[in-house]
Amino acid sequence: MRPVDAVARIGSVLRLRDPLAIAGGSLIVMLAIVAVAAPVLPLSDPNTIDAIHRLDTPSVAHPFGTDNLGRDVLSRLAWGARWSMGTVAVATVLIMSIGVAVGTIAGYFGGIVDDLLMRLVDVFLALPSLLLALAIGGLLGPGFTSVLMALVCVWWASYARMVRGLVVALRSHEYLVAARSLGGSDLHVLVRHVLPNVMPSVAVLATIEMGDLVLAVAALGFLGIGVQAPNAEWGSMVSDARPFLLSAPRLAFWPGLAITLTVMAFNVVGDGFRDRFDPRTPGRPFVPKSGSRTRVAQASSDA
Amino acid sequence: MSVMVGGYVSRRILSVLPVWLGLSLLAFSLSNLAPGDPAEVMLRQQTGEPPGAAEVALLRQEMGLDQPFPIRYGRWLADALRGDLGESYSTGNPVARTLIMNLPPTLELALSSLILAIILGVPLGVVGAARNGTVIDHSLRFVSLVGASIPAFVLGYLLILFLAVNLRLFPVSGSGGWMYLALPAMTLALAESAALARLTRSSMMAVLREDYVRTARAKGLRSASVLTRHALRNALNPVVTLLGLRFGRLLGGAVIVEIVFSRAGLGTVMIDAIRDRDYSMIQGFILFIGSVFVASNLIVDVVYSRLDPRVRLDSEKEYRSAPG
After folding, report:
1. pTM (predicted TM-score)
2. Is A300 in Cβ contact with B199 (below 8 Å)?
3. B242-260, pLDDT tens digit by residue?
4. Closest Cα in chain A, distance from residue B49 (Å)
5. Can you tell me the ipTM of this complex?
6. Does B151 sit within 8 Å of A235, measured CB to CB?
7. How many helices (H) and strands (E) does chain B have?
8. A4 CA to chain B: closest CA distance, Å?
9. What is the DSSP letter of B151?
């Protein structure tokens, strides 16, 4: 299969139309493959220090050159993809589960449960997300679990709020009333009737937020909270490149480009999904209520 | 009328209280859930070697760490309400004073990049909406996509390389006059103006479909006048609201940018605190930043309610602050 065909195939599988979104989707698929296959790819070991080949310019053996410790930059980029994509994937699953659970419970049961849960959401949204993630990651120390904890603690709240809004809007629909009056239990109604209506919007939000998560993982890595040295991570690669910004700017350039392209890919795919899948008016996201705050919410998720 | 406004303002201030209390609980429990004993960390900081169990126990008692969680939280909260956030575990300086002294440079950076972002982003969004679908629109969208996707620290390095090192327009890093502010502010503003341009564009597109715009055009007004006098004024409402809500995001970004440019401010304080495992500073920082953020949202809402009466009426039903 020619590369062009492969890209077109990915586009049609993901059901995207916009060429930019198709390119983004292909990049994400490629990164995911690299992330999974990094250990078996024909790359040099990412952590082997080579004092003779320090700061080498690109060559056949090291297509992207070597860093200040003589480590292969290409291979570190690939392992960095494994870290970034892995963290973001696991974090997204956890965030979605918590956010959907809290939002559904709050929206479906209403009353004091709703009030308490939403005040909790308010607290978490009352802090700049990156700073809260930084504080949590900083308190827990470097490593996969603390980055994961930081991301989940910060990002579940916006999902919970969105899902709650959707569920509240659904609650009064006739088919839910019908399902209940036919004797359906709360659990049955939630799983069979509420969740299927909520999930498309959740999936769209998740794709858009994944770009933010990649940025957050990179920022934490840059600040020394992500991966433990000597393992490779894009953000920490940029930060390690600081002393060589003038002599070897490519050391900061490649990981920086990797982060930017990955975030761009998630952003365009998220936009594409929103246009394609969101059951509400095409191109108009999530919030189904009318009134002056709706325009703000629409515009904010456009932004 | 004034009674209504007063009612809205006091209700809005009251609605902040539970959030602020929750914030304080979050800040306090986070640093208490963290691994490591503050007393041990403190002794290790002072002597440089692992302390004995007896010493740790004594200091724990002195610091009140042997008390149950609710009592410690209550004490900390009571002190915090008087503006006392305790002393830093690593330097011994008062936490509240350190934070307040380092707030102005961070606010200066966040505000100047906000202004820069408005100057850049709003006109670009208007042009994008007015030339919807053309090459100009598409390239503007692409640029704002890149702007929204590039991490601040990468953009900061790029600006250092091109504007400071190659063109020698600005100093590479440090603190001082506006020359030192220029690069950090640009770094922060570019990402923000990208978001603003997208927002202005989509808001303008919605307004341009309204009847009154068609009426204005039908009257034969020049299109520039229709755009600015009729469309932009209405399209800016969501933009203004969002500016306030995004201010917290800017504060977060400012912290990173400060570290990239080795600029004094809250960012440096935070990174030092994390490096030294300075729990009292970190919990103070969370409460402080949260309070600044909540207060800025409050101010935006109150100001906005004076500008747009519909907000007051809407809030009669329900108030929900949007994510930052």
Report:
1. 0.83
2. yes
3. 777 777 778 888 888 988 8
4. 20
5. 0.81
6. yes
7. 14, 0
8. 22
9. -
